[in-house]
Amino acid sequence: MLGIICDSLGDLPVELAERDDVYVVPVMVVLGEKSFRDGVEISRAEIADFLENNFARTSLPSPGDVMEAFETLYSRGYDELLVVNLSSALSGTHNLFKTIGEQFASAHESVAIEYVDSLSLSGGIAMLVYKAISMKEMGDSLRVISSDLRSRAGTKNFVFFVLPTLKYLKQSGRIGRLEGSVGEILNVKPIGTIDSDGIFTLSGKARGMKKAVEKMVDRLIDAAKGKKVLCLALYHSGNERDTISLVDWARKRISSLSETLLTGELSSGILVHGGKGIIGIGALIA
């Protein structure tokens, strides 16, 4: 039987994350001197409060937690394991899972493991996992599924997101401090994406969240134009009225592209890099 392992930055919807054949390993969220398991040991609200006057970061999952994922699914009878992770260009998470997986496989000769670098994050990973589950239910093999996902990663898996503030990008060094300061003064909202190499890049910007979200949605629609869309993703951080209103607007604009829409609130691991009010969308192309 085939089971799926991923990290918590995949932001799987509850209906996927809670399946018996899926195991989500939490990344670590670091606040000051303390580390917490994403989504397990600390709430989004607590992180949001911390971010009001501080900066946080993420770190790799615990190796023990990763090994537990392999052991748990194997004990449930899943001897074929598909591992789908956050882009290796953004984190060492994928390499960690491969290292632990190889250790596990060396002690369990009957297990088969395939690794897929999503070259994405959040909804981009969730859409690949959704595709994997769909293929599994159609009877496809582990090797066929992993090959299909690799062919889509970075080329047929589009993700865009609007960040409500530049301060976290400025702190991380992804943009210059002068550019970030001027942007904050002018209410400039960056539109980010993950390129074909799995690297975060700024793809545009606009004055104000509404205009930025409109521009982001237009970019996704343009990217999907003339193509069959297998599924869509729509995620956000925080539940402020303005954020939810823009999420609802985006849903209406993109819903005609596909019958399948994965939705949810962004994980704590994403929240620390953008704060409350992030809105992200994605499309997986046939």
UniProtKB/TrEMBL annotation:
Organism from which the protein derives: Mesotoga infera
Statement: the UniProt record of this protein carries the keyword ATP-binding: no
Protein name (database record): DegV family protein
InterPro entries reported for this sequence: DegV, DegV_C, DegV_domain_contain
Gene3D superfamilies: 3.30.1180.10, 3.40.50.10170
Pfam families, per database record: DegV (PF02645)
UniProt keyword annotation of Thylakoid present: no
Lineage: Bacteria, Thermotogati, Thermotogota, Thermotogae, Kosmotogales
SUPFAM superfamilies in the cross-refs: DAK1/DegV-like
Top-rank taxon, per record: Bacteria
Keywords recorded for this protein, A-Z: Lipid-binding
GO molecular function annotation: lipid binding
